[in-house]
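Researcher: Go.
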Amino acid sequence: MVLKAFRHLGEELQLAEVIDRTGFPKTTTFRLLRTLIHGGLIERASAGVYRNSFGPITARPFRIGFASQGDTEFALEVTKSVETVASREHVQLVTLNNRYSAREALRNADLLIREHVDLVLEFQTYERVASVIASKFLAANTPVIAIEVPHPGATYFGADNYKAGLIGGKALGRWARENWNGQVDQLVLVALPIAGSLLELRLVGMVDGLRSELPKILETPLARLNGSGTFEQVLNEMRQFLRRRGLRRTLVASVNDICSMAALRAFAEAGASEQCAVVGQNALREARAELRRPGSRLVGSVAYFPNATARS
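Model: Structure:
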């Protein structure tokens, strides 16, 4: 009832006016106002004057459903940002975790529809279920913003993946030219097939960037590895690759830093760190720490910012 006394956002009322509009006793009104101030819904504008910082209580609050990708560092940073802005703008946020699972993402889509949210922020990786998830929200007449991986009919919020790959490829090529005189024995591309064609553009850009620095790179033996799964899964694939192909001067261009760090580990285990040079994507905290380590063979990682283009 005290919040209802304020009829619009930013309205200022004296204590006597709040008492008049609510009909509550002075002590009760004062106690409730103090509680609302503590909760951040009301501000004390001056002595005996209170300002509404929440909005009219009679209006239905805007509700956003946010389906987070999972518990990776990048996903947690996105979640933290969304929660901060929702709190600042006094928007109700229904947060679910897709747990890097196609099945969980489909289940969460149904849950958000039942919650009758006004907008959905969908952050899930699997291209094969993107159209199904999008059709569910379309049928419910709920607009969607797709983060990182496009969903049919949704507004796309993500990076220029080709340009990000181009940045990384050029950096890797320059390093090989300056440190190995451009002499490369094999090139490894670590992909993420589950994410579909858009993230594949990172690798297309990587190859084009490499070719701009090392024109003969396409004559080098090329291998593609599947980077879907955990760090351990990627590490096992890299171990098997090194056993098959041997320890030779190898450039590794990976779709994300999980794959990059796994590649570095595999070469280190084989005692052949000096035989590789790796470029990743996302500039995760672990990758940034590795970049600062003297002699690291992680020679670059491309960072992503919501208000700018990709940077190396």
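Model: The chain is about 45% helix and 20% strand.
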